[in-house]
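Figure-free illustration: sequence to structure, shown twice.
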Amino acid sequence: MVMAATKEFGQPIMNPTHAEALTWLIHKCATAAATKTNSGTFKPTGLGQIMNMRNNFIEPLPETSIGNIYQIMEFPTSNKSEVTPNAVIGELRKRKTEVRRIRNIESMMEMIAEMYSETGMVERLKKLDVYYLYTLLNIFPAYGIDFGWGTPVKVTIAGTQKNMAFFIASPNGEGIEALVSLERQDMEIFQNDPYLLAFAS
């Protein structure tokens, strides 16, 4: 279905993952909703996807290590033409390859320090009006966790920031559920987007 849908934008994406296709679809519909609430003017937006770095390093992490170790793949979408599947998924794949080249914690920390320095943040805010963040939890075995009361019937995430989407596995493990948080006026349009509803089951 995704392959067929991408044909209308030109060359179809070959073998897109579920997460890649879902990131593009939600970003497309979210930016379209924001454009409508902004009197039809597209806002330059940043797209970021959180990437797990735990298994990326040459030296394995200590068995006693705790906490999250991640990097954010991010890039701007400055106009509507940059929200096509080829542009979004192609850029995601390019950034993922770049991030995978980080092979030690020191290099990763240097990149994070530069990205979130005061200078880096100011420059980013000058170029972008809105920022959307996507995080993939669909491979996390949430439905296999048992704290003594049996495995969960439903897993969700309580509370989140605006313009963020969490991808989690569906209860039967055969699909992905997206938990999306947007500005109220954008969400009303987003939820009724016929393009989005065509993919909803």
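We now fold a second protein in the same way, so the two outputs can be compared directly.
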Amino acid sequence: MSSPTLIWRKAARSTGTGSECVEVAALPAAVAVRDSKNPDGPKLAFDSSTWAAFAGRVKAGELDL
């Protein structure tokens, strides 16, 4: 998953001072996720439908703490 061809994106609302940011990159059939503070560290991959369900719940405010 550390392929240099991945294009990592951070949320538009993320600030340069944010300490809790993640970045995502599109894979052919999945979405890769990493910690923006540690780009060379571990990465996770979720199939597209799982990521879409998660993102939908976040956008709906269902996972707010």
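Summary for the second example: Strands lie at 9-10, 22-26, 30-35, 43-47.
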